[in-house]
Write a structure and sequence with these properties.
about 700 residues; alpha/beta; 8-stranded mixed sheet; binds zinc ion
């Protein structure tokens, strides 16, 4: 939205005069193959000369305002202090300080805060996403690189500087610990190098103890936040530790009072009790923005002292990660992945290459008794960021973690990130070292859609209670490769009616059914923002469909339609406890009815991104005859349903429907029991989504 994206490079003047030299040292340590002969001696000299590179990123989540404000306090102290310790930090480190990873959001939150200051709504979150498209999910984009901020940060900072330490400053809720620091709780994604796990464990624990020594209270480590997904941790696959800090929030900039007895347990600790990973206890009281920035700046300076005092050790660790990454693979070890040309070959390879992975295009070749045609891509593991490629190309086996009562422990985010499945690109792991034939320069097709679709008679429902899936849906349709025109319609617009005069298609993105229906509670937000779609809106939507409209419902929004329109469909997993059915963000297998127009551009078997998703069964005893419901996709009866991630209670959904079309009057409702455009990553199921919202549109012209 045209805001500037700022980074300050902070170090001693003599270091600032030689930044190119320090970048070169980083490059050589990151990829020891470039050192040539006499490696040990060269490394010794580089370790003696290099500086610890520390990237401090603030404000990716714009309502966590203490973070962006702390960047100014940190910069001021670094630039003005005469304290010998600060001068020492400046001599030994190069600090890259980003005051906001989401500059647009700073304005969105500030404008809303100013507007509501002194009203009953002071301190509430804005009634819109604090990023043009993806809201909080901007911190789930560190391997898919869909958003412009992610691209800038990766291209211009990470890939240029390869920081040894990334300090990512966040805020958490108001009632837990005052501060979280690493180590992360289990599980840790298996491709994160052991040296980095050791690094964040050592540094996080050290910072926590430093702060305790300074009198800070309520500090936890090894709780709540896991290290499973590369979506939050680019550095874990690029030689650097990620030191997440999460400080308790006020209400934006408005102070709050927390009573001791209001403090609530989170995963791994109880803020009312000292334990091995929590303490000392914070007794409650007032909590100001100034408390937030005090914790943040103290933590940042503790981190910088460690980075400075252990400069050589940080460089040594960084070098060891690189050395292990590039070592030649032995026979029987995973050597390479071979990727077959397919529709989404281009986008997948673009991701790998942006992540620093070298992809080879050797032309036709033969390995393991199999012939691979011209256009095949090969990703070898023995390269600096081979672990990044491996994490994204292999399937995830999320551990079955349970609490003391045997209940499943929810992951912090989702459990799967297998791009070949999400994008529908066939991939073969190769365990035999082989020599690649003469390399060819060109590669497979890139994003190759074209502008298409009808005019803007397509609407996306936009609740005042922001839904990230709504933002992702807009992003997918706006993306240049597809450019499917659309407009937004809010609660008021739906209640007003005459929908069929304005729209052919209305999409309701993934959101809790009761939030869609009721929106914000009366009194919690300004009156014009409360109330949701409401009964009036439901009536208008029904009229819209009966008169020929298409209503497309994504994931949990399908439950909204089932309930409100009394559809002849039942969600067979509704209300089941996690111990009986649980799918917290996983890739499942579906089969499709190739004869149905919605599946026209799909293979017979594909994937579904399931996340708190319904699964359907057609009902015969409702008002609407069962014959009006058509199953388009279903979970296989005789095959493994889970492809990647974690799924409990697979038997409950075997043979059940994942995509259903219900005709009503002259129109239809299309119920997706999954997210077909998940975070702009599940390209494999875009054709289903596009057929639903723009029949006949060809996303991949040949
Ligand atoms: Zn955050």
């Amino acid at each position: 939205m045209d805001a500037p994206f700022v980074m300050a490079t902070i170090s001693a003047p003599e270091n600032l005069a030689r930044l190119d030299e320090y970048r070169k040292i980083q490059e050589l340590l990151a990829d020891p193959r470039k050192l040539g002969s006499n490696r040990d001696e060269k490394v010794r000299r580089l370790l003696a000369r290099g500086k610890t590179i520390v990237l401090i990123t603030c404000g990716i989540h714009s309502s966590e305002v203490g973070s962006t404000l702390s960047s100014m306090l940190i910069a001021h102290q670094l630039a003005s202090s005469t304290d010998p310790e600060v001068r020492q930090i400046l001599r030994n480190t190069i600090i890259l300080l980003v005051p906001s990873l989401n500059p647009d959001g700073v304005d969105i939150v500030k404008n809303w805060y100013d507007k509501t200051l002194g009203t009953p709504y002071e301190g509430t979150d804005p009634p819109e996403l604090y990023h043009k498209y993806v809201g909080h999910d901007n911190n789930r984009d560190w391997y898919a690189f869909t958003q412009v901020e992610t691209k800038i940060t990766v291209d211009k900072i990470h890939n240029v500087w390869h920081p040894q330490i990334v300090h990512d400053i966040h805020q958490q809720g108001t009632l837990g610990s005052r501060l979280f620091l690493p180590p992360y709780m289990q599980p840790v994604e298996p491709n994160v190098p052991q040296q980095l796990v050791a690094g964040y464990t050592e540094l996080g624990n050290w910072m926590a103890n430093e702060l305790r020594g300074q009198g800070f209270q309520g500090i936890t480590t090894n709780s709540t936040y896991d290290a499973w997904t590369p979506a939050r941790a680019y550095s874990h696959y690029h030689g650097g530790v990620r030191i997440l800090s999460e400080t308790a929030s006020a209400r934006i900039a408005t102070p709050i009072t927390v009573k001791f007895e209001e403090l609530r347990s989170r995963e791994g600790y109880d803020p009312q009790k000292v334990s091995q990973n929590f303490g000392p206890v914070w007794r409650g009281g007032e909590w100001h923005l100034k408390d937030v920035t005090n914790y943040m700046t103290a933590a940042a300076f503790a981190l910088l002292r460690h980075a400075s005092d252990h400069r050589e050790q940080w460089l040594q660790r960084f070098y060891e990660v690189g050395r292990e990454a590039v070592r030649p693979r032995r026979k029987g070890e995973l050597f390479a992945f071979v990727l077959h040309p397919a529709d989404n070959f281009g986008p997948l390879l673009e991701i790998l290459e942006r992540g620093g992975v070298k992809v080879d295009y050797p032309g036709a070749f033969r390995v393991g008794g199999r012939r691979y045609p011209q256009g095949t891509a090969v990703v070898r593991l023995g390269q600096p960021y081979g672990a990044f490629a491996k994490a994204l190309l292999e399937r995830q086996h999320y551990p079955d973690l349970r609490n003391a009562e045997g209940q499943p422990l929810p992951p912090y985010d989702v459990t799967a990130h297998t791009l070949p499945l999400l994008m529908g690109v066939p991939v073969v792991p190769i365990f035999t070292p082989f020599r690649l034939p003469r390399p060819l320069p060109e590669r497979g097709e890139g994003w190759n859609g074209g502008c298409g679709g009808a005019a803007d008679r397509r609407a996306i429902y936009k609740s005042h209670s922001p839904s990230m899936d709504e933002g992702w849906t807009r992003w997918v349709l706006d993306n240049q490769a597809w450019c499917l025109f659309h407009v937004s319609v809010n609660d008021h617009g739906l209640r007003q009616g005459k929908l069929q005069e304005k729209f052919d298609t209305i999409i309701i993105p993934d959101q809790e059914p009761r939030t869609i229906l009721n929106g914000f509670r009366k009194g919690s937000m300004p009156p014009e923002l409360t109330g949701g779609i409401g009964e009036e809106g439901v009536k208008e939507l029904r009229k819209f469909v009966e008169q020929g409209g298409t209503l497309v419902l994504l994931n949990r929004a399908s439950d909204f339609a089932i309930e409100q329109f009394k559809l002849p469909v039942r969600n067979v997993v509704a209300g089941l406890p996690r111990s009986e059915f649980y799918v917290p963000g996983s890739i499942l297998r579906i089969e499709l009815d190739a004869a149905h127009p919605l599946a026209a551009r799909m293979p017979k078997s594909s994937i579904a991104w399931a996340e708190d998703s319904p699964a359907f069964e057609i009902q015969t005893d409702g008002e609407i005859p069962a014959s009006q419901a058509h199953v388009v996709a279903w979970y296989p009866r005789d095959q493994e349903v889970l492809l990647s991630g974690w799924l409990l209670g697979a038997d409950r959904i075997k043979g059940k429907a994942a995509l259903v079309e219900v005709t009503l009057g002259k129109g239809r409702m299309i119920l997706f029991g999954f997210r077909p455009q998940y975070r702009a990553q599940s390209l494999a199921t875009y054709p289903l989504f596009f057929q639903a919202i723009a029949p006949g549109y060809r996303p991949w012209p040949r």
